[in-house]
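Listing S7. Sequence submitted for prediction.
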Amino acid sequence: YRNKASGSTAAPLVTIKQDNASDDQAALSIIQDAPGYGLDIDQNGNKEAIYIDSTSSTEHVISAVGSSLTTGRLGYFYSNSASTGTRDLIRITNDNASATATTGLRVVNDSTGDTVYIDDNGNGKALYVDGEATTADMVKFEADALTTGSAVKIGSNASSSDTRYILELVNDHASSTGTTVINIDQDANAYGIKID
């Protein structure tokens, strides 16, 4: 417990320091057999509740394993703030242009459940992509194992009679004379486009 102003302190309240580089054991281990929290942080100040500065090169900075899950989640992030200030609930930044082999986010799913599920209940874009690529594909789908499935399926069951487009492609610059809005390359003896 400490109750001093910042001008009267010069060090953390608690410091755990393992100063031998050859020791491969944990600096802090918490074993919790009861149904309470393993670690409870109540952060009331305007600063990060958890801050990690890691110099790891080949190991994970954060690793979470939950192989006994049934209806629980491996991670849960929740916000009920009414503020209209611009913010991201989660942001992943790869800030070095030379890290060309880095993937910003990779999701691997070995089951038949949805790999990514977006449930957008507000009147905004469910998915927005702002890319600065010049020679690379902005969005790419590869589905080389398909049998009766579709590579991309877009559907709407809205009953509104308002004028709208299910799919809209816009080439918005008059100078881009070399642009083809839709290019279909069909190598099989089948329809390039089928309209029913």
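Caption to Listing S7: primary sequence and predicted structure tokens for the chain studied. The mean pLDDT is 96. DSSP finds no helices and no strands in the chain.
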